[in-house]
Amino acid sequence: MKPKKLLFGVLVLCVLSFGIQSVNAAPIKIDLWHAMGGIPGPTLEKIAEEFNASQNDVELHVHYQGSYYDLQQKFMASIAAKNPPALVQLPIEGTGVFGPTGALADLSGYLEDDPEIGFEHFQPGLLVDSWYKDQFLAIPFNRSNPVLYYNVDHFIEAGLGTEAPETWEELIEYSEKLTIVDDDGRIIRHGFSPNLHWWTLTPMIWSNGGNLADPETGTPMFASAEVAEVLNLISDMVNVSRTARVYAGTVFSAGDRARADFNQGKISMYIQSIGSLAGFDEELNLKTAFVPRFKDSEFVVPNGGGSLFMAENLTKEQKDAAWEVIKYFVQADTQAFWSQSTGYMPTCLPALDTPEMTDFYSEKPNYKTAVNQLPYAQKIPSSEVFLDIINVFESAVQEIVISQVDAFEVLEEAIKLIN
Amino acid sequence: MKRFYEKHLVPYLLILPAMTLVVVFGLIPVVQNVEISLHKWNFVTQKTYVAFKNYKDLFTSYSLFPKVIKNTFFYALLKIPPTIILSLSLALLLTKGVFGQNVFRGLFFVPWIVPTVNIAFLWMYILEPEYGLVNFLLGKLGILGPGWFYSVNWALPALGLISIWKGIGYFSVLYIGGLQNIPQEMYEVAEIDGAGPLKKLVYITLPLLSSTTLFVLVILVIETITEFDLPAVLTDGGPANSTNLLVYYIYQRAFNAFQGGSAAAISTVTLVMLLIFTISQFRLSTKWVHYEI
Amino acid sequence: MKIYQTHRLFQKEIGKVFRFVIILLFAILVALPFFWMISSSLKKPLEIFEVPIVWLPAKPQWSNYTEAWVQAPFSKYMFNSIFVSTSIIIGQFFTVILAAYAFARLTFPGKNLLFLSVLSLMMVRLEVRIIPVYLMVSNFGWIDSYYGLIIPMLTSPFGIFLVRQAFMQIPQDLLDAVKIDGGSHLTIIRHVMIPLSVPTIITFMVFGFISHYNSYFYPLIVTHSDRFRTIPIGLSRFKMASETGGVPWHYLMAASAIALIPSVIVFLFSQKYFVRGVASTGIKG
Fold first, then answer.
1. Is the pLDDT of residue A1 over 80?
2. C90 at B interface, C-beta within 8 A
3. Which residues in C lie closer than 8 A to residue A63 (C-beta atoms)?
4. Cβ A76–B258 below 8 Å, yes or no?
5. Do C109 and C143 reside in the same domain of the chain?
6. Predicted confidence band at C94 (pLDDT cuts at 50, 70, 90)?
7. DSSP H or E segment with residue C123
8. Domains in chain A: ranges and CATH
9. What ranges in A196-331 are assigned the alpha helix state H?
10. Which of A391, A402, A417 minimises the CB distance to B239?
11. A260 in C contact zone (CB under 8 Å)
12. C187 in the same domain as C135
């Protein structure tokens, strides 16, 4: 065989092996990108399988993209490549971040016309983060808000009863009582772990009158006395009274780390999404409660979790197919199953009224905390630059808490980095 | 006609496949990169021409860039000198006829061929502050181990440590190659003159290894400046941006802040740094590198 | 005199032992993390977190390996990694050898400039060209496909540089002999250049395989579904799979151990050429 022929043969083989990919085009293929790891991941995949088994017109493929950060980076890159997936499960800030790109479809038409699912299908408080200007972009799917997790056994042991602290002032007090120091002066249990993530810090910041960004314009505004005060308070708990424990700056994000510590009884209280309630050790005597408020203010938490978004640049058939997927994901049965498996709130009202759900809540009241807290939930101040804002903010928080420097100066320097 | 074809067409035909790829995925992107860097662009909406604003912003207005440069420089200092010293020592030991030296050479090479992602996870576990191997061993010695990736001061040294561990085997093999090229007679002559081991090292080995050292240095610098895997897998550039290195920062500016122009400007600056460094090293090297072997 | 000699001999032996001990220490430092990886991959989750640490699991949990493997579609990732790296080095074999031959053995206008532009890419690494390359790959519609993973990698500037060096050392007489017999350039390449440069070519291909198998940055950016993800990207998804309480280190270590098998196999089989090749050429992927 001549080398030329050989070369040609190899080329032909390459082309052939790449070419055999898509042959029949009967069902419409819909890709859905998501960020659900841990327990929610397989649960979501199961829902997708059941959807595919339930009908023959649409073929749903779900693709895990890593954390919400990773997912948003990938999604932006796919928009730049003009090849976004038909459906994407973006976190709560997605509306503000991706609304301005024009890459997301306005779904209000579907909600108005569909006989089965309209605006009134959903818990009303969940829809505020769906609007970008006059476009309705986000269908609530895995929604949550942050709650306080606490170890009841530790509470009883420390003589604190079984109820959670209601205010931050109380929480600080409780923390001191819950912290255990051994004979060598080593701390073997911390009372609290503040989760150094923008979203879990937000209730404390809001309750103190501050905010990360202006809710109207999106301009960053975290360099304020109110935010600084909150961060100094946390820093003091970590570094001065040493009743709180933090881990920051790793990919095994602060929340995951705190969760592991909580599961092993190394911390007594921490703040995390209701969406990670499933999967703790059976014998762990845990309860969830509202996130504390400052003494002189009201309870307040940010909306959280994720929603389903549809790409704008699709054919009518693809959009209709994607809508079928969305409907399946937010129907009462799916939401009841999803909620019971993961901890996320059911996003639709019909699911809340099902007998299984009421039975479930009376058996496991921990799961209901987020629903009860929903009246206190508010819209987060997302915008085009929000991802940059939270990135800069979280780095500043790490610096403040780990390096023990005064919060206000660090925040003031940090806010200038956003452009 | 055949002669013309032979002489004038064949060479170009032979290089055509390689050159096409070099031009399309190498040279054109460099030019495009400069073009993008002169615009404000979020990858989606229309580009706006802003001339050199993106570059000025890196140096004048508030930017993480100076900190990132500082981090990268510090990382280079942490990583490059120990790598050179350790791999050279190892090479010296491994060329003196030690029992099982070929097995050792192979073993030391293994970290280099393993995916960085594997290495990163392995070390993340080993350097885990509470139940990790390193802090346990330090504890045995009565030392309270640091927080490593959770500490603003120790995260970057931890990356350096991993990177040194990964590289010494490879670089020592380069040095072994260099050592084998040194003629044995030179040592014999020196010994007759009464030179001890230290003198031989300083006056013969090191000067005659200088071309290898130059090569090692150039590779190490290129590697350091383009480091991405370790911060991306281990630290996300944190805590508090203490491990935010150049290429990771480019990635962050592009895909997290959606500042395409700014990211392209940083790429261009990095590229210029690489060129200046490499060219100047080869220029300067005429002063300190001995090629006469 | 005799005493002096024995003394010298004794010193020499002491030196040998001393060197061996130091090398052994180095070897422990290099091997210990790998030992730790294997040991941890066989532990029960609780043994992972135990303080003081558990050197060897009480009962090796071999099932960790099979369980870790199905935590994510690792077989698919492994196939992708091997398929992509193999395709790349096969492609590079052709592009590199043809170009190296032209640059080493032929004269043509613009040769130096063209060669310099190839060399420059050794410094201007992909990392600093990534934005335009990403946009270009997406313009071709190659995001999340084997095309996107393979085609931009089908040549290697360092390979060209290296193979050209080897080709330049081959005596002109051998080439002339083929020419007199009426052989073409391809005959020369096939029957003279390649057979006489086997160690260099193997070194460059093995290194190419390993560096593409290990590559994280580029595949991370151009893939977004499990159909095309490679092993390093697959491993990195353990980053977030920890919501059940702590990092699943035992799985992570087991998956890591499997993931490094292909590199190690390729390395072992080519070690003879490879370590020697690196020593003499200083290859860099």
1. no
2. no
3. 224-226
4. yes
5. yes
6. very high
7. helix C111-123
8. 27-144+304-375 (3.40.190.10), 146-302+385-415 (3.40.190.10)
9. 198-207, 225-239, 254-263, 316-330
10. A402
11. yes
12. yes
DSSP string, A101-138: GT-B---HHHHHH-SS--GGGB-GGGSGGGEETTEE--
Positions in chain B short of pLDDT 50? 292-293
Q: How far is A252 from chain C (nearest CA, A)?
A: 6
Domain boundary among C65, C95, C112: C65
Q: What is the DSSP string of A173-211?
A: HHHHHH-EE-TTS-EEEEEEE---SHHHHHHHHHHTT--
DSSP per residue over A342-363, as a string? H-PBP-BHHHHHSHHHHHHHHH
Read off the pLDDT of residues A182-215 as tens digits, 9 standing for 90 and up: 887 788 899 999 888 899 999 999 999 999 999 9
CB contact under 8 A, C106 and B10: yes
Angstroms from A246 CA to nearest CA on chain B: 9
Question: Total domain count for chain C?
Answer: 2
Are C143 and A83 an interchain contact pair (Cβ–Cβ within 8 Å)?
yes
Residue C153's nearest CA partner among C87, C78, C233, C204 is: C87
Do C60 and C182 share a structural domain? Answer: no
Query: Is the CB of A63 less than 8 angstroms away from the CB of C226?
Result: yes
Considering only CB atoms, which chain A residues are within 8 Å of C239? 66-67, 251-252
What is the pLDDT at residue B1?
A: 58
Residue closest to C231 by CA, chosen among B115, B86, A199: B115
Looking at the structure, tell me whether residues C97 and C185 fall in a common domain: yes
> CB of C71 within 8 Å of any CB in chain A?
no
Residues of C in contact with A282 (CB under 8 A): none
Domain with residue C257: its CATH number is 1.10.3720.10
Q: Does C100 score more than 90 pLDDT?
A: yes
* Close Cβ partners of A46 (under 8 Å, ≥ 6 residues apart): none
Using a CB-CB distance cutoff of 8 angstroms, which residues of chain A are in contact with residue C135? 80-81
Establish if A67 touches chain C: CB-CB under 8 angstroms.
yes
Alpha-carbon gap, residue C48 to C248, rounded angstroms: 9
Task: Please check whether residues C56 and C109 belong to one and the same domain.
Answer: no
Closest in A77, A385, A403 to B255, CB measured: A77
Q: Is B132 at the interface with chain A, CB within 8 A?
A: no
Q: Please check whether residues C42 and C148 belong to one and the same domain.
A: no
Domain boundary among C28, C45, C65: C65
At A148, the amino acid letter reads L
For A47-88, write each residue's pLDDT tens digit: 999 999 999 999 999 999 888 888 998 998 899 888 899 999
Burial class (CB in 10 A: 0-12, 13-18, 19+), A124: exposed
**Structural domain harbouring C258:** 72-281
The number of C-beta contacts closer than 8 angstroms across A and B is 91
Residues of A in contact with C226 (CB under 8 A): 63-64
CA distances from A81 to C110, C140, C229 (A): 36, 10, 18
**C151 and C217 inside one domain:** yes
Residues whose CB falls within 8 Å of the CB of residue C77, separated by 6 or more in sequence, listed in order = C226, C229, C230, C231, C233, C234
Highest mean pLDDT, choosing among A40-54, C177-191, C239-253 = A40-54
CATH architecture of the domain covering B52-288: Orthogonal Bundle (1.10)
Give the residue on A whose Cα is nearest the Cα of C134: A81
Sign of the Cα pseudo-torsion (A164, A166, A170, A171, in order):
positive
Query: C61 and C76, same structural domain?
Result: no
Nearest to C275 among B30, B32, B106 (CB): B106
C238 inside 8 A of chain B by CB: yes
Mean pLDDT of A6-27: 53
Q: 3-state SS string over C44-93?
A: CHHHHCCCCCCCCCCCCCCHHHHHHHCCCCHHHHHHHHHHHHHHHHHHHH
